[in-house]
Predict the structure.
Amino acid sequence: MKSPTDIAERLARQWHRSSLRVERLLSADSWPLEMPIGKPSGAQFARETARVQEHVQHWRAVKTGTVTWETVNYRAGAEPVSVPMTWRLDSPSDWVTATADNTVREEFKILETIVANVAPSYRECLVTERPLWRTKDPQEVITAAELADKLSPGIAKGKPLRLLGGLDIDTKFFERHVPLITRLLDERYDGAVSEQGLHNFLDALTENDHWLLVAPLDADLLPFDRQRVPAQELARICLPSSNILVVENEQCLHLLPRAPDTIAILGAGLNLQWLGTGAFREKKIAYWGDMDTWGLLMLGRARQHFPALHPLMMTRDHFEKHAHNCAVAEPIPAHFRSPTGLNDKERSFFEFLLRQEKGRLEQEYLPERVVLNEINDWIDTR
C-alpha cells in the first residue's frame, strides 16, 4: 500500500539513473509506465480503517497520469470498496510532474529544450552525461552541437581555434566549452577526439602543448632510451640524427629496431605542424601509421608540412598481404573522399579502404621482420 509520496520519491530516484533517463526520454517504447500501488490487506482494512481512508483520499487527489481503481470485497466491510491499484504515466512529462521534485523539473526543462534542438546523434550522450550541460545556458549547448556538425579533422590548419571563421561563435566559445565539444565530436568520430585531444584533432595551435615520445634507435645519440618532449620544443631544437621516423602510435615502440643515426618520434596524431619548422628542414623523414582512413589522413597532413617525407608500410600491397585475421572494421572513416597531401597511389588506397567491410589494419599487427626490413631499406636509401 504505497502512497503518492512513496512512489514520487521512487520516481525521483529513477531520474538520477542515467540508463533509465535515456530509456524513458528517448524511447517511445518505454511508455506507458505503470507503477503498482498495492491494495490494502484485509487486516489493514479492519484495524487501520482511518489510514486506509486517508490512503484512498490521497490517490483520489492525484491529477497526473491515470490511477487505476479496483472494487474489493473486505470481510470487515459492509459493502465493496474501490481502492487504487496502479498509477499509469503516459509520457516523460507525466514522470517528471509525478516526482514533485524541483531539481528533476528544472533538469527536464533544460533537457527538453536541448534535445528538441540538437541532432539525434547527440541526444543520448547529453541525456546520459548531465555534467556536460548542468551549469550551462541551454542555448550554448545547442550552439556547441551545431558547431560539432561543422567541425572536421584538421579544419583549423594550424591556426588557433579562436581564429576559425564562419562558425557563428565568439572567439572564446571553444575555451568555454572544450569538454562539451570534445564529447559531441566523439559521437561523430568514435572517440578519436578524446584520444587525440581536441586541438590535435582539429590541427589547432595551442599553448597547452602536446607531448610526444622521443626514442633514439641509435644508443649513442641521446642520454636516454625514451623521453616525452613538448611539440613546441621539438619545433625549435635540432635533434642529433640525420634520420627521423615519425610513428602514429606509441604502442609500436617495441616493434622498432635499432637503427643507426635515427630517432623515432611517436604519438603525434594529427599534431604534425612541428615537421614544417627549420629544425627538421635538413632531416630525412619517414612516416609510419595505421592502414586506415585516419592513418592516411595523418600521412597527408604530415606530407603537407614536409613534402619530401617517405611513407612506410602504408600501401594496398601491405594491407592485402597482412589483413587476414588482423583487419577490422573502421567505426568512423576520417573522410569520405581522399584528403589533401596524398599521391595518386595513396588516394587509390584510401578509396579502396572505404569500400572494405574491414578497412582498418593497425600498425601494431605487422610482423616485426617486416617492420625491420622496411625501416632498414629506408635508412639505406640515399
Notes: The first helix runs from residue 4 to 15. The chain has 17 helices and nine strands. The first strand starts at residue 33 and ends at 36.
